[in-house]
Amino acid sequence: MLKFKPEPEPEPEPEAWLPLAGDAERHALDHPWPSPEQGSVRFVVDDAFFRLEHDARLLLYRDLSERMLKVFRELTPPGGWLYALDPQHPCYRFHPHVPFEVGATLQEWTGLYTREHMEWVERGIHPPPFEARWAMDVHPAGDPEHLFAPPDFHFVFAARYRVGNFDGLEAPGRGPIETETYELLGQRLIAAVDRDPPELFRRARRLESDE
Q1: pLDDT class for 11, splitting at 50, 70, 90?
Q2: Region label for 55, one of left (φ > 0), alpha (ψ between -120 and 50) or beta (otherwise)
Q3: Which end of the chain offers a freer environment for a tag, N or C, measured as fewer CB atoms within 10 Å?
Q4: How far apart are CA 138 and CA 117, in angstroms?
């Protein structure tokens, strides 16, 4: 009597974002960073960026996301991962080589609504919701701090948002200003970004570690 072997179960699709919790999350958040003497650069984006047309800002964020994903893939071995950390929100292990971004729209790339989407809502038309591809954005998304680092923290990418006069910016006669600061710690990260910098960084004020 012939016996039919069942078809093997398909391998599950790899996931780009795996939540961290408990001791693993605490260990990652408490891990020491590289010393600035090992290489440190900051890009300060002042409030001129926030006066740009809404979708123009989103296009700069998408360019930032695309170029930083390229950098993360360059610096992470196949099958490797990075910490994606936010002290105030859920944290993750991020596997950058998983093609999570394929076919993403501008909204899915940036995690932010486009002007067209908001205009539809204002007219009482509710377009379908979208799912952001980045569980944690490489831009601050209005949060104090987003961090990306490998397991040994030999480099750190930090994106920060502030409201106030920070990083030597002055606004005489004006109230607090919005500022985004992107910090790169570690020579490998700095060199990789400098080979093909995001347009947002080209527009920003660059501060070296001795400034």
Answers
A1: low
A2: alpha
A3: N
A4: 22
CA 148 to chain centroid: 8
Alpha helices in the chain (DSSP H): 22-30, 47-50, 54-75, 106-110, 115-122, 187-195, 199-203
Q: Nearest 5°: phi and psi at 41?
A: -135, 140
Task: Provide the 10 A C-beta neighbour count for residue 122.
Answer: 8
DSSP string, 6-65: PPPPPPPPP-SEEEE-HHHHHHHHHPPPPPGGG-EEEEEE-HHHHTS-HHHHHHHHHHHH
SS3 category, 160: strand
DSSP letter, residue 168: T
d(CA 109, CA 98) in angstroms, rounded, equals 15
Mean pLDDT of all residues in the chain?
Answer: 90
pLDDT in tens, 151-165: 999 999 999 999 875
Q: How far apart are CA 172 and CA 176, in angstroms?
A: 10
Residue with tokens 């093997």: 8
